[in-house]
Amino acid sequence: MGRYVIRRLLQMIPVFIGSTFLIFIMVYALGDPVAALFGDRAPDPATAARIRAELYLDQPLWKQYLHYMGQIFRGDFGTAFNGQPVLDLMVTAFPITIRLTLIAVVIEMIIGIVLGVVSGLRRGRSVDTTLLFLTLIVISVPTFVTGYLLQFLFGVKWGIVRPSVSTDATFGELLLPGVVLALVSLAYVTRLTRTSIVENVRGDYVRTARAKGLPRRRVIVRHLLRNSLIPVVTFIGTDIGALMGGAIVTERIFNIHGVGFQLYQGILRNNAPTVVGFVTVLVIVFLLANLIVDLLYAVLDPRIRYA
Amino acid sequence: MRGVTQARPQAAGRARRFACAAAVALAATGCGGGGNGGGGGDGTGILSSSWGDPQNPLEPANTNEVQGGKVLDMIFRGLKRYDPETGEAKNMLAEKIESDDSQNFTVTVKKGWKFSNGEPVTAKSFVDAWNYGAHLDNAQKNAYFFEYIEGYDEVHPEEGDPSAKTLSGLKVTGGQTFTVKLNQKFSTWPETLGYNAFAPLPKAFFDDHDAWVKKPVGNGPYQVESYQKGSVMKLRKWEDYKGPDKARNGGVDLKVYTDNNAAYTDLLSGNLDLADDIPAAQLKNVESDLGDRYINEPAGIIQTLAFPFYDKGWGEGKEKLRQGISRAIDREKITEQIYHGTRTPASDWTSPVLGEKGGYQAGICGEFCDYDPKAAKKLIDEAGGLPGGRMTLTSNVDTGSHRVWLDAACNSINNALGKDKACTVNPVGTFADYRNQIGDERMTGPFRAGWQMDYPLIQNFLQPLYYTNASSNDGKWSNKEFDKLVDEANAERDTEKAVRKFQDAEKVLAEQMPAIPLWYQNGSAGFSERLTDVKLNPFSVPVYDQIKVG
Fold it and tell me: What DSSP character marks residue B223?
């Protein structure tokens, strides 16, 4: 187990270097950001050259990358164009997005699994059909539609919540955006759990457990559900990364100043340090989430062993 | 599974483009918001206003966009100030600015003004600030504002290191007086001094620059109480402000919004008092939502289509082609249907905010800006048709609903020519990329050229854009007659005559059509029921100090 974890962690190093390099090239390919800083006016060459030198943009690509990586290992993620260290941006943005993601994941886990179990155990009945139909609708409606719709209903029409989130972004304020963010994944979790339950409910071990005279509740939770959760856990694990990076739409609708906001600004302004820095952290989050998912397999299914 | 999770963010990204449409449908039901907070009209009420994250650190000579400009406009007062209504440059800190020859100026600064940290504003406050702004080592984006002052080449050479520390044309001659020597005659130069780049700076700026940038200190009616970068800036009325334009409210909270749709929704639900820049998608229903709490006023912005004169197909000898394209675009319809009156069809190359006296004159463009598809086709045919039988319109499409009007303009041109695919749109994803393509001279057809004035002078609408090798002459047009007229106008000491010379130069533009005037842009804003006396100045920035709360 310990050796397995170490091996996986070591494997992350090339992935990390490769992905940062790719992102760096992609942002670089967007072109020179300095011209845009001058608005509709052509920059005067002397000032532009100074700014390029300050931002290390006058060097060839490979030197820029080495310089950047060197900085990262010293814990310095560079400076955004408005003079703010990217690290500061991260310190304010990540806690907010983590809170938002946490809310979304908790919602999709609890509600999604419960609905999935209910639906799977009553296969073919009206509850099952209704849930399948509803989840289909949720999956096919894009996030920005549900976002604007719920924002309008709860925020403007009924006035129950503020339509936008304040700078503190407390858990209470993030509840509605969290629901919006969770909805699509929620539908997937429900459907996955349902399918898995339907498959396993006829399994020999379930029949055995029933024959032993175990109470129904214990059969479902300890035996059936535990075995059915493997695909669901895989999904939720990878979804954590996707939710954090993919919250751009939700964060824009509710004016949340999280990771999505910073990424959006960074891309719009061709600001390499911001984009690469944030994406790098997201890559790490993604890798760690995947590792945890793999370790959870062993917990859920004792037959799986890592060495 | 991975396929599923990874497909989603992409789809969402694509979806964002349509987000506005959904918002329209939602807000159509309307809902007059309006909160109820303190204030009560005694001048202590605090209002909240929408804001965008400033692109640059908030130094006066480094701020060249509206969002940073909003703050500078509240915390700084310069020698001159543009009247919020007429745009006229009036003395603010300047006691007087005198000159005998349009080249040597003596400036006297009024006594008694202070920065909010207690330092007095002296002649040195200005000279130090300007020297800082001009010096290459400080890499200030507005450095070119000082280019007319003698010695600029030494502190800001085009190549290599500066050979001087200060501008030789600036001399402090007394506590409150200094002299300015320009490197050319420029009769209207004092009127450029209302721009924020010319603001005075306190000693604190030079002593502890980092601390100053974190919490700027100025001499205007407001002072910064707190600044949380990227989210909110709290400005409060400065009680000891001695100027004539004391704040009529207790302060302003500037809140950063990434999406102006979110700001608009907050305004409707009463969580925001003032949202400027109403999203294009909401313009249809803004009047039913807000009634008379919606304002739409001319701003000093004009949109044009420039031509690449480095491309043979569009350059020399093709004026009929360029005029023909101009006549093929139905400005009335586009401004009405897409912009709902927040743009008005242009018929000259300046802006209505200048006023007749300042040089704005409708109709200088003449028939060449009138929509007439038949005449357009004739002109284009006489010029030998479109180069290669087709053309593209290029613009960045990340803001300003540019994509929509580009499509409409192309349709208009196609209809005039009776061909389906003669004109197509070449959308560029980001503004940065677009500016780079222009800088590299990669345009192959007409492209969008927007211009927001730096100061309300007709000179600012013409010289930087059409003078040979001028800083924003993106199409690289060059015309001796135009250059000569601009030079003459600058040397002219009588303002009225100077304006007339500039208008003569504009007539050259009508003949040559190096850029097609499209429309004048307005500024728009909506506000809550708590506020009264909300106005936008010619730079489309709300006049915060005049707003009353409660």
Answer: E
